[in-house]
Amino acid sequence: MRGASSRARARIFDRAFGVFTFLAAAILIALPVLLVIVIAQASWPALIRFGPAFILDKTWDPNLPPITFGAAPFITDTIITSLIALLIGIPISIGAAVFLAELAPDWLRAPVAAVVDLLAAVPSVVFGLWGLYVLVPYMRTTGDPLLTKYLGWSPLFAQHAGSQSGQSVLTASIILGIMILPTISSVSREALRATPDSQREAALSLGATRWEATRIGPLSYARSGIFGAAVLGLGRAMGETMAVTMTIGNSNNVGTSLIDPGQTLSSLIAINFGNALPLERAALVELGLILMGLSLLVNVVARLLLRSMTRMGATTA
Amino acid sequence: MSGDKLVVQNLNAWYGKTHAVQDISLSFPDKKATAIIGPSGCGKSTFIRCLNRIHETQPKARSEGKVLLDGSDVYQADPTEIRRKIGMVFQRPNVFPTMSIYGNVAAGLKLHGGYSHDEIDTLVIESLKKAALWDEVKEKLDQSALQLSGGQQQRLCIARALAVQPEVLLMDEPASALDPISTARIEDLIFDLKNSVPVIIVTHNMQQAARVADRTAFLYLGKLVEVAPTRDLFERPTEKLTESYITGRFG
Question: Residue A56: which H helix or E strand, with range?
């Protein structure tokens, strides 16, 4: 009898376990759906007032009539800062990952990896403070003048009135580049470590040097993982708010120069939300909607690229 | 002895504290296949991994002793040059998954450079023919190497090793992960290959040694027990230990 009742209890538990895991999965699916519904609802007044022109309009003016809101400068700056951040972050983090995964002696590997991972735990406001107290003054006194002196001929580094504060699109991009280092490097490191030794030995046995063996062994084998790491980094850079808000200079004008102050989607939301009147508030929420759309787009494009990469892999090598 | 391509003198090798290869001296004649047999863990893989200096790329691995290729010490030379001259095929097919069939075979040639496009083409085709794979892949050279079956992948690895024109070919249980038909093809291949390049093959399969090798060496617990022409070793072993092993009393 006892045996039978314990089997019955096990069956009930089994059922409950199934229900619990199903509910957990259902919540994860329902959350983003609810999120989109709420965000769309809150931005509704702006959506119907400005229509699709919102994306292309360059003015953000809540004060003087006619009141107009347009997202173009912020979309541009979000994309530019993220791309520059990747440009800075990818070589450094992949270099560090290769060193840690392939070249570092065993005793050095664990402590350095721990420090890199720790970097990921630094709150973004701390990065922002560092940017404000170290990077911004440096750019003001040294970085920006140097860039203008040697590259000022290009509109990308031209100095305009009001762009002498050290807070700029470039400054924010550098901070972002640093912030995404730990993400990209630890994910790539794991991908490299997952490469079987037989790949390294295959290359070595053909007479490859250590660098060559790394390139045709682990770096090729793990390339989809490394690509995924870069996409994660891009996602983090696009959404980052605090550190960007503190270092980008918060100018709503469209600038051509990277050393002009700027504004990303997330930094404008953070700056203006507190004091916004209802219509501007709706427009700000719409910026959030656009940011979500951008992230989604990046992920979809990344997935497609990854698929074609694995399919094309054979012919390009 | 003249005609010996590779001469090993008093070779010792360690993994950490494990003394895996103990004072082995052995010579390998040119244009012959030599099999190295013995139970798992007898040090046979470690032994051939010392010959092309790939053993030392593992952490905590080290070795001592002399390995002479045409009379000059392998351990005094540039290891990348040695590994090009002494090719290796591993237990499991380790094709480069992101490269095409062609790219895999050309990989070594591209590393060393100095080959024209036409020369690479010629060597790739030649190597695939030597590895008895050409007919199966000639229509799809630009496709991924992963599309091939396990046996084909292993022959691709052999072609890849042959493409850099090695002077010796090491094979570490090259058929242990393959089905019987693929195994038979690899064995036929070794039989043909040895006419152009000496082959040293590690195997735990005694029938395989008997089928492909001119000479066979028996290793036990890191030591060389006996080496003899294959027929003699299997039919008239001089050591009791060899006899017990080949008659299946242990192993």
Answer: helix A53-56
